[in-house]
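DM between two lab members

TW: hey, do you still have the R-spondin-2 entry open?
JB: yeah, one sec
JB: this one, 210 aa:
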Amino acid sequence: ANYGPNPICKGCLSCSKDNGCIRCQHKLFFFLRREGMRQYGECLHSCPAGYYGLRTPDMNRCSRCRIENCDSCFSRDFCTKCKTGFYSHRGRCFRGCPAGFAALEELMECVEGCEVGQWSEWGTCSRNNKTCGFKWGLETRTRQIVKKPAKDTIPCPTIAESRRCKMAMRHCPGGRRPAKTKDKKKKKKNLMERAQKQHSIFLATDKTSQ
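TW: and the structure you got?
JB:
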């Protein structure tokens, strides 16, 4: 039966002029639509956004999704599509993906990310593959990739990092310091030779003047 311009009783087993469908055919879902102060029943093949189909022996119904930030859901506890700006993860909606998961932007889903182990201890302070001979050097620590991501497009976090460090030994044994001592002795010897030469010139000049 039709009441008014719209076939509000389509798919109904029983229908009211004022309230629309009261009971639906076996395969359809009963949905109670609200418009302002008025509400009326409809029989639908699938439930609208924000609702999911709940099948019961008495009558199939459209039940509202109760999951926060969910647009459409499969059941009371599983969201199939989140609202704009939220990522879907195991039937829930998140602003950001939980630890250990990475955001797949094109699908707005959280997928298994790259898992890395703990950082190692900081390595020896060195520079140019030497652990002495400089005031400052670099020390490095690393960590291993425990599990690669499911998607190749998801990058792993850094697995090595370095920082500036002060070397324990600025001068290498038998290296720069002895070389400086040798140079110092050579410089002293040159000064002595120059002084002796100047003294000899002075004596020769003195004799001539006499």
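TW: got it. Helices lie at 176-209. The first strand starts at residue 12 and ends at 16.
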